[in-house]
Amino acid sequence: MSDLGNKTIEVISPSLLIDARGLACPLPLLKAKQGLNQLAVGECLQLLATDPGSERDIHAYMSLSAHHLESFSIDAGTYIYLIRKG
Fold first, then answer.
1. 71-83: per-residue pLDDT in tens?
2. How far is Cα 56 from Cα 10, in angstroms, rounded to an integer?
3. CATH number where 72 lies
4. CA distances (Å), origin 8, targets 2, 11, 42
5. Is residue 7 part of a domain?
6. 2, part of any domain
7. Fewer CB within 10 Å: C terminus or N terminus of the chain?
8. What's the domain count of the chain?
């Protein structure tokens, strides 16, 4: 954890990184599911994707699963997901 003045920020380090850049739908989601199957409950997966459809797919999957989307951002065309296994 980091302390910034009065705010404490938890820094999450992923247990697994999956680079799905260049893969088209639905492969980023399938790779994420495969990665999550390798993790223990509470561990985090970081997924990198370039397919814009991955945003819709990952968010929909998160709403239907026990997993939690810790963070989501887009950087220079790369969609970055941090998913905690539920």
1. 999 999 999 999 9
2. 26
3. 3.30.110.40
4. 6, 10, 20
5. no
6. no
7. N
8. 1
The reported pLDDT for the residue numbered 11 is 73
Range of the domain at 23: 12-84
Kindly calculate the radius of gyration of the chain based on its CA atoms and give it in whole angstroms: 13
In a domain, 56, yes or no: yes
Within 1-86, strands assigned E span 2-4, 7-9, 16-20, 44-49, 68-75, 78-84
7-52, pLDDT tens digit by residue?
666 678 899 999 999 999 999 999 999 999 999 999 999 999 999 9
- Please say if 44 is a catalytic residue: no
1 is a domain residue: no
Catalytic residue among 16, 25, 69, 82: 25
Q: What's the DSSP call for residue 66?
A: S
